[in-house]
Amino acid sequence: DAKTTQPPSMDCAEGRAANLPCNHSTISGNEYVYWYRQIHSQGPQYIIHGLKNNETNEMASLIITEDRKSSTLILPHATLRDTAVYYCIVRVNAGGTSYGKLTFGQGTILTVHP
Amino acid sequence: EPEVTQTPSHQVTQMGQEVILRCVPISNHLYFYWYRQILGQKVEFLVSFYNNEISEKSEIFDDQFSVERPDGSNFTLKIRSTKLEDSAMYFCASKAPTGNSPLHFGNGTRLTVT
After folding, report:
1. Contact across the interface for A93 and B99, Cβ inside 8 Å
2. A43/chain B closest Cα distance in angstroms
3. How far apart are the C-alpha atoms of A44 and A31, rounded to whole Å?
4. B16 conformational bin, left if phi > 0, alpha if psi -120 to 50, beta if neither
5. What is the pLDDT along chain A (114 residues), one digit of tens a residue?
6. Fewer CB near the last or first residue (10 Å), C or N of chain B?
7. Which of B31, B45, B47, B103 to mutate against chain A (most A CBs within 10 Å)?
8. Do A93 and B100 lie within an 8 Å CB cutoff?
9. Residues A21, A55, A61, CA angle at the centre, nearest 5°?
10. Does the CB of A57 have a partner CB in chain B at under 8 Å?
11. What are phi and psi of A82, to 5 degrees?
């Protein structure tokens, strides 16, 4: 799976949009971009994923550049409860010799301030 | 919304003892995983399980570890002879059959080996 690069930490004011960047310049055509977060020592929580189109759900939006070499996770109105470690992970589809595992990096520590 | 459940939430054991960590994956999922996270470190992949057999395992998953799906609903991780360095959070995850579907994680079992 392609490697990802994320800033180690970011700050955001409560109520503002949090934009978390991720570089994945070696991504291949069949690899999806997944975002997870981990609040304190809880289990990683799935946020959103995409292949090449922008995606939106009730938690966040995912913007993937046209060349797919980078993406941005957007939390539109950050709250204090969004303070967490955010992981950007690239993964191939499960099937064949791939069984869909995710490889976690260090992620970005997002701190939302009042 | 269906979720992955893990029991117990906290397990304390003495070095050399056997422990079994239990997980109930989401009911229609076919791929199953164990991860661990030592305090302050990354979330690390241990093993994936599909079609009643191990599909992939990491270097961490040595002979003292085993996994089983004994009754079609539970998924267990056994550590045969625990060591101090096995102290960690252990997360179970499951995934639906669709290739690009995300992993869903439980909230973990904190294992403390004394």
Report:
1. yes
2. 4
3. 20
4. left
5. 669 999 999 999 999 999 999 999 999 888 999 999 999 889 999 999 999 989 999 999 999 999 999 999 999 999 999 999 999 999 876 666 567 889 999 999 999 999
6. N
7. B103
8. yes
9. 50
10. no
11. -85, -5
